[in-house]
Amino acid sequence: MRRSVLIFIIINVLVIAFLTNRVWILITLLFADGMSDAISRGELPAADAESSDTRPQLIPKIIHQTYINESVPPVWQEAQRSCIELHKGDYEYKFWTDAKSREFIAAEYPWFLDTFDGYPYPIQRADAIRYFALATYGGIYIDLDNGCNRRLDPLLSYPAWVRRTIPTGISNDAMGSVPQHPFFLRVIRSLEKYNRSWILPYITIMGSTGPLFLSVIWRRYSREGLNQGDGRVRILFPDEYQDKPWGFFLHNLGNSWHGKDVKLIFWMARHWIALTITGFLTAGVAFFVLYWVYYRFLVAGSSKGGSIRLRFPFWRRTSTKDYELLDRDDRHEV
Ligand SMILES: *[C@@H]1O[C@H](CO)[C@@H](O)[C@H](O)[C@H]1NC(C)=O
């Protein structure tokens, strides 16, 4: 094989390997069901029988919630009240307003303050503060639109847990952990690195601080063998989560911070065949453009004064003379 073609193919293989490597965690995410870490119904006491649970409680009795300021909109007040009422007396309630969150980061995590202040979307700060709150104090974080259906005591018996989302990944809308749990320490230490813009606000938020970010860290953490012993992160499945009499949470559909991007994502999901074909066509065009650039500047560029004709690697068996000429040029060039 001619050396120029070989180099071209090697470069392409490297590019493809690089791209595959970058999205590999996302691909594994599609197959990670978290079943082996599931919190099964058998180990949980029935609703209203929480006091029969004799397992040690590891997670401190703290409930964390966040909002811009103290004036919670009426649509979420009932959900908020349901959690406070059920846990009155023995749980501490920490409410993180924007002002309190910033004060806390500035005091406890000054190395993160620039990133925190620099987030373009307020929801990113709301995402980030919940990880820092859990890593610092431990407790259970609950989104303001998720009401409580029963007491959360049984969920205190795991060093850390998150909620599984269907079809893939985990969510950050309800999570629990002991203080300084290695998973949440890993999460807060990863935020800076994942603070990137993906052009679309929805994807930027998901990938930098939201559920996609959390899912990617969860996969990496598991693949490194850290998801075991005290470092294990248990998974709450939808069946134990909501819509069942024994589920822990009530979901209030008042939350709709994502707009056009979500519509775009759903549109893409509906037209995935056309989009896939377009993707392959684009890749094909890119391949030939790359080859043309490569040929034009690296191979043909050195044939002094000679006419430059575009040649593709697969149909160049025109004459042996061409081979010799190109072979010689290659040696000069490389
Ligand atoms: C709280 O934030 C909302 C939304 O930005 C705003 O409309 C409201 O005036 C704020 N309330 C107070 C007390 O600052």
Automatic annotation (TrEMBL):
Its main location: membrane. It is a multi-pass membrane protein. It is found in: Membrane. One of its GO terms (molecular function) is mannosyltransferase activity. Keywords: Membrane, Transferase, Transmembrane, Transmembrane helix. GO terms for biological process: mannosyl-inositol phosphorylceramide biosynthetic process. GO terms for cellular component: membrane. SUPFAM superfamilies: Nucleotide-diphospho-sugar transferases. The chain crosses the membrane at residues 6-32, 199-218, 272-294. Belongs to the glycosyltransferase 32 family. PANTHER family: MANNOSYL PHOSPHORYLINOSITOL CERAMIDE SYNTHASE, MANNOSYL PHOSPHORYLINOSITOL CERAMIDE SYNTHASE CSH1-RELATED. This is Mannosyl phosphorylinositol ceramide synthase SUR1.
